[in-house]
Amino acid sequence: GSTNGIAVVRGAFSGGVLSWGAPNLVISGSDNTVVYDKEWMAADSLSGTLYLTFTKFTSASDEIDFCRNTTDNVGAWTAPIKLSSTTDNGLVQGSRVAVGPTGDVWTTWNAIGNPLTDIYDYMRVRRSTTNGASFGAEATGAQQILSNFGSGAPGFNRGTGFTFPGMAVDRGTGPHRGRVYLTWNESINFYDDNFGSLIAGNAVNEIETNDTPATATAFTMGKNLFGGMSTANDFDYWKFNGTQGQTIICELDSVYTTTLDASFRLFCSDGSTRLAYSESGFGGDNISQSLIVFTLPSTGTYYLRVASTTNDPLKPPGTGGYRIRTTLDTPSAGERARDHRDIFVTTSDNGTAWTTPVRVNGDVGHLDDWLPEVAVAPNGNAYCQWYDWRDASAPICGGASMTYLARSTDGGATWTDGSPVSSAVTNWTTTSANIAPNQGDYTALFANTNAVYSIWSDGRNGDPDAYMAAVNLSFTAVQVSLAATDVTPDRVRITWASSGGAGVVGTVYRRGGSDAWTVLGDVTSDGSGMLSYEDRAVTPGTRYVYRIGIHDPSGEILSGEVTIDVPLALAFGVRSVGANPSPGSVRVACSLPDAGTATLELIDVAGRRVDQQTLTGPGAPEVELAQGRSLAPGVYLVRLTHAGRSATTRVAVIR
């Protein structure tokens, strides 16, 4: 069509079935004059009023607007109110709206500082105490944010980065009732670093043919690189040696023809794992915007690549010359972030005075963290989630993510280091997607009395899927938690840990999709409090949901649900690993998809091989490493190598 807009559809449950009503149009306009984007909605549980914020783009500018509906989406929505200031016209995006415990309406959005005079971004905030009929003056919830705008996280397939806010309000009855939480990701300050001199002696010209990592043109950081796309299918690879913890700054600052739109990428030492992607846009000398700021996760050789691309259906990929300027970041005073992206939270009880931002993520300071969300449970505990890259295997340079969740029990003053919500690592380079962005522009997080509900983009099935996990909050002190899962095409094995020691009895339940729960059988905990059940009545390629009900004098107490995808065939990797605290050994279950031998190693933190075993595939062997050796407490690496591939995971031995 020739128009675009925003509509809201109301859903209702009847007999356990969700049905949707007719769309109710909020706003629309001609594609030739306006585009509506980044809509966000909240509902007031007290009044039923719906609140909506969005970005309105025109050919000349953009702004953040607000609408409301007091009729449960039956009647018309109000005319839009402009929330963002005239000063920020053309510089705003990513708005949010939330409702406080007394019906006050909170809104926030990202505002980019004036590109000519200001290096910082800001999170603007406005509050309504009139149920959205009017808003108070604009405040700034987060000051002086350094946005890594040039590129997204490893494997992100849109050639830019962004810094949008997440927001939540404490609606509970605890001491922080009414407190507002803001979260975002930000970078070290790369604006105060200088590129090398433009004298001729500091230039490096590409040496053709350099169209593969193996033939890449070598350079050192601080040099100026000059190359060109001779055809639309040309690749230019450059290589440099880097040290773990160094933050590189590489700016493709000049495209010498109006026909070239440059795709600018950073690759891992393997030459294939995508760590950063920035796109210059069509243009001429000194007006391109391709920038990579990235903290190196390990010491080794890295690769830059320039290629011709296009995001304009009316313009084919073109040719032309380019220049790349390079340097290393020197840490400076006042930086909140430790690397190219960390997660932060600030809070306020009134919307005008905001706390000093607190870093949430507890990983080491050379890995990516981005797209955070925040939620507050009715008991006042706050939760923050984000994409985290600490679980990626060493050979792919931090190029795979999991979704992590952290908790604050003191109103946002301190946070736990975070732990994974997702149950599988996603390698975004090998995750196929026919649309950008593959990781989304945001994730989602919601909390109620029962659980914290996390939603994210996940590539474990080969392409991005929306996954959800519920973190149970309705637990008691003496019950059960998930300890391990082990899945092959012909069986599922689940182990729960009980704090009740030996002799705890539980009933295992299973369902498929939206089917009813069926009883599989009872299990009893062993001497270490572990309850294990093996389900062999499974169909390859099917998804099952499991739970266990603990027999208690007060009645059956159900655990959280565990979702298992049974694979169609064995996939190479380590399926599960766990320490056996009694003899001090390590149990490992792995998968070998084809014939041939594999090597399984146990390595300590100093890099010493503690044990090694040779395995033969195909199959799903389970072995015990360091049997009878009484391992010292600490963190160990388990590495499986087969047919030129390796998989690595960590295990902690606690005595």
From TrEMBL:
Pfam families: PPC (PF04151). Gene3D superfamilies: 2.120.10.10, 2.60.120.380, Immunoglobulins. Residues 234-308 form the Peptidase C-terminal archaeal/bacterial domain. InterPro entries: FN3_dom, Ig-like_fold, Peptidase_C_arc/bac, Secre_tail, Sialidase_sf. This is Pre-peptidase C-terminal domain-containing protein.
